[in-house]
Amino acid sequence: MAGRRNVLLIVVDQWRADFVPCLGASFLHTPNLDRLCREGVTFRNHVTTAVPCGPARASLLTGLYLMNHRAVQNTVPLDARHMNLGKALRLIGYDPALIGYTTSTPDPRTTGPRDPRFTTLGDLMDGFRSVGAFEPSMDGYFGWLAQKGYRLPERRTDIWLPEGEDAAPGATDRPCRIPSELSDSAYFTERALTYLKGKGSKPWFLHLGYWRPHPPFVASAPYHAMYRPEDMPAPIRAATAEEEAAQHPLLGHYLEAIRQASFFERADGRGAELDGREIAQMRATYAGLISEVDDCLGRVFAYLDETGQWEDTLVIFTSDHGEQLGDHHLLGKIGYFDESFRVPLVVKDPDAPEVGGRIENAFTESVDVMPTILDWLGGDIPRACDGRSILPVLHGSRPADWRRFLSYEFDFRDVFYDQPEGRLGLGMEEASLMVVQDERRKYVHFAALPPLFFDLEKDPHQFRNLALDPAHAVELRDYAQLALSHRMTHAERTLTHFRATPHGLENRLVPTTTA
């Protein structure tokens, strides 16, 4: 391998794990992701440790659990004191480039209340250099369209409406107005190629973000018609939304509150009202958006091939979170079901081509991405980091003390587009949940709502809550204790390894020597 070491971190948005061909989605056409899976390792049991976008990306890029970084919802600020991947890369001589977005709200103590970043859903995380901005408010993309000569409508987001329509008719098989060569995926790809061609032979790190398959669920031609609705997997859900809602008050809130307009431009009605035909069409469009991203990745991969950089580059493919897609009658990334939290993770390490094509079953989490990149580049992993480098697992040497279960969190406090606190009778700091799950069981702990407990062997899709079943009381206790112990052992620890002694400051992580 050549002397330089490059990193391509691909972060897509709202791509759930079961829409990966090598993990069972044989109906998808993704030749470039397939190549990455053949040359790298695909992690079957990978989760984001938080949803939605802002908290998920904060965990991905800081290596911290939600309980520690506390950017608990979109629009909630990220504490400026936290180390993140961009800052850490600068310490080892990299200028970390970012295409796309991080949905980060700045620490208000570092600026003032009139800062325009407080009027948007999120902005860019400190430490990164933007070389293809999308935020705020997609201005980078819309400006690019105008520069390309595309005449923007007065309401810019109307580009995702079918031609001649004032509102999307919910799930649709019609293409949106914007042609594929001017789509947001094409924009990110052009920005990536511009950046890479400008770097020449210098080492680089690139966070390459794609907005898709995030809604609105409408695709440009020809991707709108690439898949047939009848070929899509059927939704996993109870017979009715009302039956589903009976499981838990939080589920009932979202089944009532989620609107179709968040997923289809100007559509009417609740997400839970979508019928089977509409869900099948929505999934076909979602699959088309995935194939469009895959085609775009093919252009980036081809350039790395042509320039001989593919063999020098660590490539990581992942998503910030998943998408319910009608499962449990839900849309979006919310609650506690696996569809929102299980996401793809594929890693191609040029140092270990012999492991290519393997599917790894070890439990991995989004907080592992930051320490993995720093480990591969020879940097120091911050003491506070909750994740671990997966390089030993990648190379086939899973440590004996590797995690035995997955954990993730969701904070559902009020934000400007959703107010569950009043409906559920909760205070701001009570609106949260934590999940621990292994191959056999899943426990959901709420700060101030009833718990949930599922037998994943008999009920893999989590329809039957066993939390009140006396036959499972001991198991429930054990998993509750597991969740508590996990939180206690991952409490913030930046300085906890230091101590004062009669001989001065002692660092317990540095072995002492004796004469």
TrEMBL record:
Q: Which GO terms describe its molecular function?
A: metal ion binding; sulfuric ester hydrolase activity
Keyword Hydrolase attached: yes
Is Metal-binding set as a keyword in this record?
A: yes
Q: Where is the Sulfatase N-terminal domain?
A: 5-378
Q: Which InterPro entries match?
A: Alkaline_phosphatase_core_sf, HdlasePehA, Sulfatase_N
> Which keywords does this Swiss-Prot/TrEMBL entry list?
Hydrolase, Metal-binding
The Gene Ontology CC terms held by the record are: cytoplasm
Q: Which NCBIfam families match?
A: HdlasePehA
Supply the name of the protein.
Answer: Alkaline phosphatase family protein
Q: Source taxonomy lineage?
A: Bacteria, Pseudomonadati, Pseudomonadota, Alphaproteobacteria, Acetobacterales
